[in-house]
Amino acid sequence: MGLSGAPTLSGSQRYGSGAMRSRVNWALLGLVIQRASYGYELVHRFERTYGKTLELSSPSHIYGALNALVKHELIEKVSGEEFGLDAGHPKPHYRATARGATAYEQWLVCQVQQERTRSRLFAEQLTVLEPQRALRVLARCEEAFLKQASAASPERTANQAPDDQAGRLTDLLVSEEQRLTAGARLAWIEYARDVLQALAARRSEEP
Amino acid sequence: MSVLELENVTRSVGRGAREHVVLRDVSLRLDAGELVAVWGVRHSGRSMLLRVAAGIEPTDSGVVRFNGRALSPDSGEMLGKGIAYCRNAASGAEADGVLDELVLSQLARGVSRRPARTCALAALERVGAERCGAHAVHELDGADTARVRIAVALVAAPSLLLIEDPTSGVDLLERDAILALLRSLADEGLAVLMSAGQATALSGADRALSLTKGVLRGSVVPELAPVLPLRARAQN
Known about the structure:
The complex is a heterodimer. By secondary structure, chain A is mostly helical. Chain A has 8 helices and 2 strands. In chain A, strands 1-2 form a two-stranded antiparallel ribbon. The longest helix of chain A has 38 residues, at 168-205. Helix content of chain B is 28%, strand content 24%. The interface between A and B is medium-sized, with 28 and 27 residues.
């Protein structure tokens, strides 16, 4: 399946229900794709990169995840010497396979699809409520989205071209994504409010 | 005392079957040093809200107060005397260049030429548009136009700035610089009320509100109650 086509299988479906359901494993695969390395360095890079979003139970979590990735042939273990390290530093290194690089991209695309499932679920859960209650929930969501849109600080992004400093590029991308989604959701709330108000009006007319 | 206060303001336009309510029982308070952004789609009433706040549009009911004093509606009496209103369009067709326009707008208020020029240069510097002084407004790009619009407002030393869609037509990477400029003006004590057609322009606002079919929602009063002087608190 190429990236151009709509993905039909999520990463976890494709790789069975076991280890590859773990978000830590996929996140780690990304780091190995970024740069081949050894376990200890990956633990630190993991914490630097994902410290705000993913929690490791312990450093050994990473070693277990590396084994799972090797088992699925998404990464491979190579000796330190193959990396041009001298015999005194024979640390095994991990590098991504072509299969791992492709699987990672597919998994990322699938994440966006899951977003759609989440918004469907939200609409389903909202519409089981009476229109008046649903409208109250919408009003509170609207406040949250307004806060989300105003929370991004323009000073931080103003006049600074994105660079690839650790975290900065991520911050820029996340801040813009949050502002844009907040905008889309505000517009959606306006629509949902219209529909629910019309429904509430019709129900109040019914005997 | 709030710089701007709207109390139960309602405004309709059109007549008979074509009448529609543009602002519906809108209340809003804005303090010095606050940046408040109102998000709304087109025809939500966001421009009308600013025009009513500027005192250049009548209301059907309700009161607009500036520094505690009720504005006589539709008079524009405080424009240039504390209230600055920036429309979403550049003016200046009759001026030779941006600097010239900034000077002329002050001469019209009775300021003499030399202080007017000093003030105009300072305003251009404050908004980061020194390089635009000799250009005509139509020669500027989106971001510089936005900066110049703000400079035009600043030469009148307002305490309330009402600005329509400050980032409309501004390049994506320049957009946040304009928002940061407005934020910094508020941090210096100016009360800023801006409208936004895009939610991305709500960044950095102290309060973001939404306006839908004339209904204003969100935190319509400052979130922190004004701190009372010590003596008043003791009496309470």
